[in-house]
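Interim report to the steering committee. The following record documents the input for Calmodulin-binding heat-shock protein (444 residues).
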Amino acid sequence: MSFLCGLPLVECVYCLACARWAWKRCLHTAGHDSENWGFATVEEFEPIPRLCRYILAVYEDDLRQPLWAPPGGYGISPDSLLLKKTYEDTYGRAPPYILYLDHEHEDIVLAIRGLNLAKESDYAVLLDNKLGKKKFDGGYVHNGLLKAAGWVLDAECEILRKLVEKYPNYTLTFVGHSLGSGVAAMLAMVVVQNSHRLGNIDRKRVRCYAIAPARCMSLNLAVRYADVINSVVLQDDFLPRTATPLEDIFKSLFCLPCLLCMRCMRDTCIPEGKMLKDPRRLYAPGRLYHIVERKPFKMGRFPPVVRTAVPVDGRFEHIVLSCNATSDHAIIWIEKEAQRALDLMLEKEEPMEAPAKQKMERQETMTRHNVEYKAALQRAKTLDVPHAYTPPSEYGTFDEEGDANSTRSQGESSNKSYVEETWDALIERHLDKDEHGHTVLKRQ
């Protein structure tokens, strides 16, 4: 009995809990995040390696004499490079970027570089945020990234409007890496919300590719803008999994090992349902493309596969304990593995003989994306995600009682106004006033 009383039960329970946590975290790999997703097609993944090279081109001082060009070059014609902005041009309010007119792919591309560890202005953009500090379109966004996107739009609004009007068949693409990915995602949202500034550009013409994305918008916005914004994550990349607030990214760059353990323990102990119902919690934006190239308990890299979905729950919630968590964030590796994945897709594809087949497959991809997009919106509503948006029914029914009541009230109001107008017309037609002010029938 004395032995049982002296047994450190609390310490044993704590050790068992830590052991269970460590076992679960060690078994959790990046492949688990997207194991239930579908595979990406050539049609939808084709622009990503090319856009990664455009981002790499921002780092060059002279594209006519490049110093760090990848194999095959950047794929940019220097004559079609419309502008290039450096830190001196942006006054530190936004990362450097280029504006490129891609005639070959009928695309107007604004590419933004990633975080510069030697620039204090980039840290100022990143650290300008608190949970719930900035609201936008019914959700929450990162304040510093939104301000940077607003500055870019104000600076380039006129030239973008002229290009959009001059080339009505061209798409407008915003692409960025790391810090630039957050600015690009915010820029796409601002353009969609203020389309009149770019000549009332159609939402379908606006695209965004966030490479190694920062968590910059609340879950309802991340799902709602999945038809415009696409995020690309390479295997174990830490940034899309780094919990908010985003100032922790600054700490993780210098103290990653110990921070990863603390982050993993804290996120593991918080129920996912509680995280989903926090309207201020920020997430990686839009549709997600996950490049998986390593398998658990196996050495080396395998032929990469690309999975894609618009997830609601299980949206890169937990950091992966991996020695590649930072290397997978590098734009050079992402471009290389994305190109490998695209080459493998092309090898597996049957040769396309007729343009009609290409058009049919493109239509099938768009249909699948639309179905997944609506399913994600409905899933967010089912999970009670704050401010979640429900897509309108194809049959004209009401998903919410409030919507039905609101519509009914509007109908009753319109019917009432119609009755009042009819009654007034009847009075004017058949009734009149006598000399004493009494209402009398008109003499026909």
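The chain has 16 helices and 15 strands. The committee is asked to note this result when reviewing the revised timeline.
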